[in-house]
Amino acid sequence: MEDKYTTITKTIGEGFYSEKRSKFLAFAHHVESQAQIREILSVYRKKYYDARHVCYAYVLGADKADYKMNDDGEPSSTAGKPIYGQIVSNDLTDILIVVIRYYGGVNLGTGGLIVAYRTAAADALSHCVIEEKYIKEKITFTFPYVMMNGVMKVVKTMEPQIISQEFDNTCTITLSIRRSKAEELKNKLNSLSFE
Question: Any idea where the Impact N-terminal domain is (predicted)?
Answer without folding.
Answer: 20-125
